Amino acid sequence: QKEVEQDPGPLSVPEGAIVSLNCTYSNSAFQYFMWYRQYSRKGPELLMYTYSSGNKEDGRFTAQVDKSSKYISLFIRDSQPSDSATYLCAMWDTGRRALTFGSGTRLQVQP
Amino acid sequence: DAGVTQSPTHLIKTRGQQVTLRCSPKSGHDTVSWYQQALGQGPQFIFQYYEEEERQRGNFPDRFSGHQFPNYSSELNVNALLLGDSALYLCASSPIDGTGDVFGAGTRLSVL
Known about the structure:
Number of helices of chain B: 0
Oligomer: heterodimer
Order of helices and strands of chain B: EEEEEEEEEEE
Largest interface: A-B, 26 and 25 residues
Largest sheet of chain B: 7 strands, mixed
Strand content of chain B: over 45%
Radius of gyration of chain A: 13 Å
Helix content of chain A: under 10%
Shape of chain A: globular
Radius of gyration of chain B: 13 Å
Mean pLDDT of chain A: 93
Distance between the termini of chain B: 37 Å
Largest sheet of chain A: 6 strands, mixed
Mean pLDDT of chain B: 93
Structural class of chain B: mainly beta
Number of helices of chain A: 0
Shape of chain B: globular
């Protein structure tokens, strides 16, 4: 069983839709939770990171962490064609000092 | 401010050869990590360098080795290349607390 599970998609939505991306994890040692966006043939770009359970908002993006359920989400409001990319969840544990990634969800926003 | 830079961008090698990939971290970052990303997968942690020493290592064989220089730049070496080593190799740098790794654009390695 992978430590981080993420639905690979692809997920196709119309422009303006609300997008929900999710990951589950099994390792209780994970303390920081990140979302990266990766365009084709580029490196991952950090979108958001959170430490505690709850919500964190940044513009059209909201990250949600539920440590009791070992479940994290990223919501994208008013999605745009430029949001079309692969979204990777990643988790950091201070013991290992490295990121463990999900497999990524490919998102396509249709104009 | 330049972010993380990697070279070369693309590389084609044949089985059994050796390859060296290079990385310059973001200014102010002293920790460099290397990841391997196979097609359609998330990045997998290879190892991390801090103060010129390997601090952490993922589940990769000894064919994968690295180095960090006094200016914090780093190299990844892979010996005896296998077809399965074909992937995007990503370098990430971070400050000492390790949160929010910043990634380079990667080196795409093809092993024929």
